[in-house]
Design brief:
CATH superfamily: Alpha/Beta hydrolase fold, catalytic domain
Structural class: alpha/beta
Mean pLDDT: 97
Shape: globular
CATH topology: Rossmann fold
Low-confidence stretches: none
Strand order of the largest sheet: 1-2-4-3-5-6-7-8
Number of strands: 8
Helix content: 25-40%
Number of helices: 9
Distance between the termini: 24 Å
Strand content: 15-25%
CATH architecture: 3-Layer(aba) Sandwich
Radius of gyration: 17 Å
């Protein structure tokens, strides 16, 4: 696997942390509400073929909180400035859960420097009549059991006591997630009416047993985004790159190869 180097970038009033590695076309990975830690291994693997950037969103992980940012819409504009500041072109946006919502909000505003989008278990919309899970109401153990299907992953996580640093990041990430997505809970009522503006190839990846955003959400996104395609992974929860890593990687890599051809 390729190594990732750590960088810092100051935008507005906040210093943000970025892991970057590899070469080739640019992949910008946008993490979910739990932070970037569970994407490190995937980022290193993808960096064998791509220039991979994995930032901590402002307020998450090792990044400072910006006083200017208080919504996912704000984060979308932030990342448009981030892309411009770094001079990134022909980006493949890959967003996970909250990060998928951010990616969609970016794309409805501008795809000038975006070549494709992958939405993985994405937040951002509300599907009437389909109840979703609420991580803010779950205990830490309930959260783990509801995120994953793979029992080995569940047992491994629950058998380890988090370090003081990990606990600090958990609290920080939870506060940041609440800041951006507390109300309404993990969606923007106006997003779906603008998803037709996404004019780049789009892949929607979902687990068939997602307990946060049930698989019906994948169909809803597909119906709202022109020319989107879906990959539903079997025996898979809300974190496909961990529950079904090989199937996830194959789906994403095949899509990226198609958009590069």
């Amino acid at each position: 696997m390729a190594t990732q180097d750590n960088h810092q970038l100051e935008i507005y009033d906040a210093m943000v942390h970025i892991s970057r590695g590899g070469s080739g076309q640019t992949l910008l990975l946008l993490h979910g509400a739990g932070g970037s830690a569970n994407l490190k291994e995937l980022a290193s693997k993808l960096a064998e073929d791509f220039d991979v950037l994995l930032p901590d969103h402002p307020g998450f992980g090792l990044s400072d909180q910006s006083k200017r940012l208080s919504s996912v819409s704000d984060l979308a504009f932030y990342y448009l400035d981030f892309i411009q500041e770094l001079g990134l072109k022909d980006i493949h946006l890959v967003g996970f859960s909250l990060g998928g919502w951010i990616a969609a909000e970016i794309a409805i505003r501008s795809t000038t420097n975006v070549k494709s989008i992958a939405l993985v278990s994405s937040a951002g919309i509300h599907v009437k009549g389909v109840p979703k899970g609420d991580p803010f109401l779950w205990s830490p153990e309930e959260l783990v059991r509801n995120l994953y299907v793979n029992q080995d992953i569940i047992n491994d996580i629950l058998s380890q006591e988090p370090t003081s640093e990990e606990l600090e990041f958990m609290v920080k990430n939870r506060v940041a997630a609440a800041r951006y997505a507390w109300h309404p809970r993990f969606y923007n009522p106006d997003l779906e009416k603008w998803l037709h503006r996404i004019d780049v190839p789009t892949l929607i990846i979902w687990g068939d047993q997602d307990k946060i955003f049930p698989v019906e959400y994948a169909s809803a996104f597909k119906n709202l985004i022109p020319h989107a395609q879906t990959q539903i992974l079997k025996d898979c929860g809300h974190v496909p790159h961990m529950d079904q890593p090989e199937a996830f990687y194959h789906s994403l890599k095949s899509f990226l190869s198609e958009t590069n051809s």
